[in-house]
Design a protein that fits this description.
The protein is mostly helical and 278 residues long. It has helices at residues 2-42, 46-52, 54-118, 122-138, 143-155, 160-177, 182-195, 203-215, 221-237, 242-254, 260-274.
């Protein structure tokens, strides 16, 4: 937001400078035209003028020519200044415009892909676009980032209604854990939801648990997601809660065991518990 505001201020200043230089340029041209007309009137009968007062004629001619030369130099400088300002204005406004168009292009392309994956209706897609705009306004995430998160949720099997309910908690998860990868964060949250057979209405609780697990131990969200990939299915069969499994990954992470190694250890523990004693 601050960058966009700065660009607008710079562009506004450049426009004012162009407008001012342009007024000076027009004024200079008008003054030069008056000087030429005055000199033409004075020199309309040079023989008579020279005969009447040779010194005055020569002095006036030299003064007028010198004045016109200075005016031409001044106008040339104004033109160069205006050209330079135009280049500055183009650079100032061009890059934000390019970035904006690029972001919108990514957003539109991803939303069309979501529509195909989820077989959503026009009304459902309009609601998803509205949801993306609301998140974009409320959180430091671009429309392209938000649509990337929505696309990951769609690829994980969530329908349009579930995506609409899940996207804000997923964005909060990505920001709170410092993951800076909405696509990955969305995939981790959706996998946890599906593995433990939880509804989309509980996505806020799911992301709170994941945030606590990532920020409260020696692991990052990507490590936690990798551990759950190995442990979730077995833990769900054993009727374990997501919060308990995430807590286990945190304990192992603090012992230096994280990611797939932690997930495998948790899975093996549940398998041993499930096996009958010999």
């Amino acid at each position: 937001m601050a960058g966009a505001l700065g660009a607008q201020i710079s562009a506004g200043a450049a426009f004012v400078k162009i407008f001012t230089d342009n007024r000076q340029f027009k004024h200079g041209l008008a003054q030069a035209r008056k000087d030429l007309i005055a000199f033409k009137t004075f020199a309309s009968n040079p023989i008579q003028a020279v005969a009447a007062n040779p010194g005055a004629f020569a002095q006036t001619a030299v003064a007028t020519i010198t004045k016109l030369e200075n005016k031409v130099r001044s106008l040339s400088g104004t033109l160069q200044s205006t050209a330079s300002t135009l280049l500055t204005l183009g650079a100032t406004m061009g890059m934000p415009l390019y970035q904006g168009l690029k972001t919108f292009g990514e957003f539109d392309s991803q939303m069309r892909l979501i529509e195909r994956i989820t077989s959503s209706t026009t009304n459902q897609m309009n609601r998803l676009r509205d949801a993306a705009n609301r998140v974009n306004e409320a959180r430091p995430a671009t429309l392209g980032d938000v649509s990337s998160g929505m696309l990951s949720l769609a690829r994980m099997g969530l329908n349009a209604d579930e995506i609409e309910k899940s996207i804000l908690p997923v964005v909060n998860l990505d920001i709170a854990t410092g993951a800076n990868n909405l696509g990955s964060s969305a995939a981790i949250a959706a996998a946890a939801m599906r593995s433990f057979n939880l509804p989309a209405e509980e996505m806020a609780r799911i992301t709170d648990i994941l945030t606590a697990g990532a920020n409260g131990s020696a692991q990052e969200l990507i490590d936690l997601g990798e551990a759950l990939k190995y442990a979730s299915s077995t833990a769900a069969i054993a009727k374990e809660d997501l919060a308990e499994v995430v807590a286990m990954t945190g304990i192992l992470a603090n012992l230096g065991v994280k990611g797939s190694m932690a997930g495998t250890a948790i899975r093996n523990a549940f398998v041993r518990i499930a096996l009958p004693e010999k």
